[in-house]
Automatic annotation (TrEMBL):
Keywords: Acyltransferase, Transferase. Pfam families: Thiolase_C, Thiolase_N. This is Acetyl-CoA C-acetyltransferase. GO terms for molecular function: acetyl-CoA C-acyltransferase activity. The active site is at C89 (acyl-thioester intermediate), H333 (proton acceptor), C363 (proton acceptor). Residues 5-246 form the Thiolase N-terminal domain.
Amino acid sequence: MAEAYIVGAVRTPIGKRKGGLSGVHPTDLAAHTLKALIDRTGVDPAAVDDVIMGCVMQVGPQSLNIGRNAWLSAGFPESVPGVTIDRQCGSSQQAVHFAAQAVLSGTQDLVVAAGVESMSIVPMGASLVPNMPFPYGESWVARYGLQEISQFHGAELMCKKWGFTRRQLEEYALESHQRAAKAIADGRFKDQIVPVNGVENDEGPRPDTSLEKMAELKTLREDGIITAATSSQISDGSGAVLIASERAVREHNLTPRARIVNLTVLGDDPVYMLTAPIPATRKALERTGLSIDDIDVIEINEAFAPVPLAWLKEIGADPARTNPNGGAIALGHPLGGTGAILMTKLLHELERTGGRYGLQTMCEGGGMANVTIIERL
């Protein structure tokens, strides 16, 4: 049976909105990551079969196939094609899936899976063009009605369904900041980050935050309990992963760092929107025959605090193994870049701790989730 290996994974620091990366054109930001990936793995860029890049707001500076444009901006061969994909927040995790599937199929040997988003330059919602019809037409309304469809509404629905209190959300958020701050202080991210414009560390974590400070914030909606403190941060960032076949490993003298074990994607209620990681994880574990206790490191995107809290409650995972170095509440969530960034974090944490299996999952607009399981080699 064919295998797909991760042979390289790098990321930029995650910059906060209007922070150190906010002046970097997203194409240049992605190109910077691609150059670092090729440099660190030592592969001939001309040998790459394809570049698959996740990006959510594909307008303005992120339009016209940023995957292709970033590769060319990096100065790499014109013979290598590129494509940009959108599975909402899971875009670059899906890029990893498509890259691995191409290798597993035997049709390609070296594929770059990457992602980028500059939310300082291209704000969330930029693709909703004014005076153009909303993306939901009559058939959608006939099926789901005129109820609100948004991540904020979904997060509040989750809080009600699972009975979370504002205090519980804030306690989780505080833990995320504390873990991220410790990871940075301990230098855990140093080997995975390629500095940009003098920025060497993730800018989001607030070591001095407290439950008292969080309690002072206004909720994002009048009748809700979600605040900015219990939501992922608006951010800028990019990540890139190189997937190789057994043949490519031999021919290019590469070192396999992890093996792709499972690729799952699943849909769930698009109104709740953020719940799909739960059934998707169950499906992935069932297909592999693994239990959640077999998983040594877990990265679940902290879009909002109720997402990992509900997942932990339903799946029964060990909280200590889940986002051990903090998540998007502290570190940030540059939409299309997050999937590749989380995979980079997951791989490096497995290597740091000597763990065997890692699992990555994230909720996505439209009520979907990707789950990827890797085995450290």
